[in-house]
Amino acid sequence: MQGKHILLNLLHSEGVEFIFGNPGTTELPLMDAFVVENRIRYILGLNEVVVMGMADGYAQATGRLAVCNLHAAPGLGNAMGMLYNAAKAGAPILVTAGQQDMCIRLTEPLLWDDLATMARPLCKWSFEVNSLAELPRAIRRASKVALTAPTGPVFLSIPGDILTASAADLDLGQPTRIGTRMRGDADVVAAAAKLIQASVNPVIFAGDSVAKSSAHAEIIAFAEAVGAPVYLEAMANTAAFPSNHPLYGGTVPRMTPALRAVMAGHDLLISIGADLMTQSQATGIEALSPGTLVVHLDDEPWQIGKNFAATAAIQGDVKATLPELTALVAGCGDGRREGIVAKLAAVRAELLAGVDAMAGQIPLQSQPVLKLIGELLPADAIVVEELLSSGMNTVRHLVPAVAPDSWFGMRGGGIGVAIPQAAGIQLAFPGRPVVVLSGDGSAMYSAAALWTLAHYQLPVITVIFNNRGYRILKQRTRAIGGHSAETDTYVAMDIEEPAIDFMALAKAHGVLGVKADTLDAVRAAFLAALASKAPTLIEIAVERGL
Ligand SMILES: Cc1ncc(C[n+]2csc(CCOP(=O)(O)OP(=O)(O)O)c2C)c(N)n1
Ligand SMILES: [Mg+2]
Predict the structure, then answer these.
(1) Residue 418: closest CA among 361, 462, 471, 477
(2) 233 CA distance to ligand 1 centroid (A)?
(3) Which of 37, 246, 396, 462 could form a disulfide with 436 if both were Cys (CB 3.0 to 4.6 A apart)?
(4) What is the residue-wise DSSP string for 146-191?
(5) 366 lines ligand 1 (CB under 6 A)
(6) DSSP-derived 3-state class of residue 393
(7) Alpha helices (H) in 480-518, listed in sequence order
(8) Strand order in the sheet with 154-159
């Protein structure tokens, strides 16, 4: 049997459903094998940003192994930004790249480079397969490593002559899966419970590990027992805590002064799988005030105590570990829970009243649009959010992020990921509405993903909040208080002259385009897109002012 068929057999036995790819000469034997392959589907992206973003979306939303196949050094190079995002999100992806044949490697042929070294900083394991005989062990190991907590991308470089070589009786081996429900150390859990009981005003930060562990019931029971507000981690990605729960407080700001304001008055920080604390810029102020006690539970030991000492440091799976901790602190929040709920409700009511007060404005403000979309969103929808200035810390108050697999957004901060991710997610969940909320600037990094939506008839609704520029960068430039702030001039942050013609862009890629510049038009366009079950791009002109 030839290497190309052996590779597909191995991937099939690892449970792989899709290979997201963009082919070149080094992948041609594999593409040839797909002519007779009917178990795994090859999904074409028109560039590697799209390919890697799709694999990321699929892997995050399912927790299953995604495979992407890139073309030699330039293909891997193009994918690196999205591989960075996938690594930050811990997405279990087997990244493969076709390599030039081993017999000419030494001559440094076109498109060749040291692929394993290129990928290594962003992957848990990175290796170039050197013979067909090595391939089964390499695929088995790579798949296991990607899916083992903390999950994440791995990389294999596969020279073309491995795919064309033949082997008669190669032992393909079997998959290995390490059980994921690791319980934390009981002594440390008991120590954490003591800290929580002694705390006067604890606060909980929730992160991706909660959603990955499907631990909503467990974190809700814990938060209610402790009687503490729950915020999502700074680069909030998943719905780590349901945004419609009365103890939901919002997302943690990504700038330390604002974060310190959230932390004011709290004597204990309990991180349930949240990273402490990804900031988007240096401010010269530490995220936590000195002496703040920290309880940290995560399956990722690297994150525990990484920047701030954890007084009680528990390595374990959230779903498996939290019930024990909850049992030990039962009732300790009874005296304060109602007061906290009332305070959070008042903050939310004020926010919503402010949003309603903006509802009549034209050009539309983003927040009333988001609130409307939140009202129209079907309960089983999956949102992929890349809104920047149009979303910031309030988006989940307006568009509910409820189920652990219902929301994905910007874990790594490399923009252009949302439309590709949505394609991968829609392939995994064909029956569920998938909605992208994107800035105009972000969408342009991977607009070619629209073609994939059209080609495979993936009914993703892509909503573009078009303020014709990089508004968040203007806001941040103004904040540094230099020439831009003095003159209200921002260099290279407008997308005008020409403005992007999103209707033509949609049409060029085979996607229906609709413009909606009033709330009524947004409602009509969104409902029509949901009903049509066809990929649709809705462009909404929103406020440009800072
Ligand atoms: C790959 C990548 N390139 C550049 C940036 C820097 N960047 C951050 S936000 C932003 C602009 C986003 O514009 P848009 O999506 O229109 O959102 P807006 O700020 O207008 O709300 C840019 C260029 C980035 N984060 N990632
Ligand atoms: Mg913009």
Answers:
(1) 462
(2) 20
(3) 462
(4) HHSSSP--EEEEEEHHHHH-B-SS------------PPPPHHHHHH
(5) no
(6) helix
(7) 483-487, 502-509
(8) 41-44, 18-21, 66-71, 93-99, 154-159, 126-128
Report whether residue 85 contacts ligand 1, using a CB cutoff of 6 Å.
no
Give the atom of ligand 1 at the shortest distance from the alpha carbon of 391: 21
Q: CA angle, 394 as apex, 388 and 396 as ends, to 5°?
A: 95
Q: Is 204 helix (H, G, I), strand (E, B) or coil?
A: strand
Q: What are phi and psi of 332, to 5 degrees?
A: -70, -15
pLDDT in tens, 12-57: 999 999 999 999 999 999 999 999 999 999 999 999 999 999 999 9
What does the alpha-carbon distance between residue 209 and residue 151 come to, in Å, rounded to a whole number? Answer: 10
Task: Check if 467 has its Cβ closer than 6 Å to any atom of ligand 1.
Answer: yes
Q: Is the CB of 474 under 6 A from ligand 1?
A: no
What digits encode the pLDDT tens for the residues 474-508? 999 999 999 999 999 999 999 999 999 999 999 99
Residue 281 — pLDDT band, cuts 50, 70, 90?
confident
**Nearest atom (ligand 1) to Cα of 415:** 26
Atom of ligand 1 nearest to the CA of 389: 21
pTM over 0.85: yes
CA distances from 10 to 6, 109, 112, 131, 157 (A): 6, 29, 25, 15, 16
Question: Contact at 8 Å (CB) between 184 and 315?
Answer: yes
Q: For residue 467, which atom of ligand 1 is closest to its CA? A: 20
Domains of the chain in sequence order: 3-164 (3.40.50.970), 186-340 (3.40.50.1220), 358-541 (3.40.50.970)
Does ligand 1 come within 6 angstroms of the Cβ of 390?
yes
Q: Encoding tokens for residue 137?
A: 């062990």
